[in-house]
Amino acid sequence: MSPRHVVVEADGGSRGNPGVAGYGAVVLDAGTGALLAERAAGLGVTTNNVAEYSGLIAGLEAARELGAEQVDVRMDSKLVIEQCSGRWQVKQPHLKPLVARATELLRSFPQTTLTWIPRAQNGAADALANAAMDGEIIEANYTGDDVEAAPALDGETAPGTGSVATAPAEASAIGAAPDMRAVATRAASAKAPGWSRGPQRTATTTVLVRHASSVLSPEKRFSGRGDVELSEDGVAQAERVAARLGAREGLDLVVSSPLRRARHTAELIAKAAGLDVIVDEDLVETDFGAWEGLTFAEIHAADPEALSAWLGSDGVAPPGGESFAAVAERVTRARDRLLAEHEGKTLVVVSHVTPLKTLLRFALEAPPIMLYRLQLDVTGVSEVDWYADGPASVRLVNDTHHLT
């Protein structure tokens, strides 16, 4: 009997955006939670959004093959959920065919729902996508009807699992194709949320530094994409945090937002530590749109309803600006890219309030409300150890003792 009501969980990722990409999707029985189907594949080099849509399409196609009539889609991509719901416009031309295909599939079911979920709740699809990006899966396809064909895991039959997988060339040369469920289980248990590198005991450390005071900071004005410089006091603050970090051994690289107030701070730190600076565009501050340069009180007086809506949901953007959910997507890309490219190193990351709060939120697996509850002062230093085989460890938050 075909399932009438299923849950599709899907994910995709790209290391570099564009970079090596892959997707994963699972179809579950909505009543029992039993696994009904899995899909995963590598995509070569493409973007994160293409990979996410590819995962959704694969999951919906699997649900249709199973004869489902009611489908609940659950993804941690706010962009995909909002675009497929019709609430956000599709501006990127290369995504329009994928959105059209996903929409066509959604409309083929009598009843559908679309729900955004935190990344931590999308572990199965995320693990498959990361296994595909790691090259452990080139293409894999599982349905419940394949259960009798399932290969053994560690010498035992795995009830309720099965796979048809295409192994990487190296694996094919030395043995049988890997079981997809084993790969996914290994990936899920071996990685910190959002990072799929293999098991390790050595952490990749990020020393997070908010830039020094700009000309707008003392007035508590919204300072997003406006490329303001450090104030005279800000330069002195940056020199003090630079002296602190320059005396620290074991630093490997300084990474900066592209904006001048962050770059200037980063360059002083790099000079003191004898390091290079690389710029990561995804670490730029939130685009506050029409609110740029205004104070909280000025915004409240001009448009209290818009401000209330923004404070009430990380999916709401300031007029003409960027939502915190959108910031989280690009900060995820930056984090995953830095951890993959500098595994086991210690990185100084100089950025702004929202990206740094977001990184701390990810490390703590905290809800978005944390963004409104955490204070980060100018040149405040925080520190996170990211372990590929376990949860992240937050070692320090907003330390400013170098200013006293």
TrEMBL record:
Report a single Gene Ontology molecular function.
Answer: nucleic acid binding
Per UniProt, substrate binds at 261
Query: Gene3D superfamilies per the record?
Result: Phosphoglycerate mutase-like (3.40.50.1240), Ribonuclease H-like superfamily/Ribonuclease H (3.30.420.10)
Q: Which SUPFAM superfamilies match?
A: Phosphoglycerate mutase-like, Ribonuclease H-like
Q: Which SMART domains match?
A: PGAM
Q: Which Pfam families match?
A: His_Phos_1, RVT_3
Give the superkingdom in one word: Bacteria
Q: Name one GO cellular component term.
A: cytoplasm
The record's active-site residues are 211, 285
Q: Which NCBIfam families match?
A: PRK07238.1
Q: What is this protein called?
A: Fructose-2,6-bisphosphatase
Taxonomy of origin reads: Bacteria, Bacillati, Actinomycetota, Actinomycetes, Cryptosporangiales
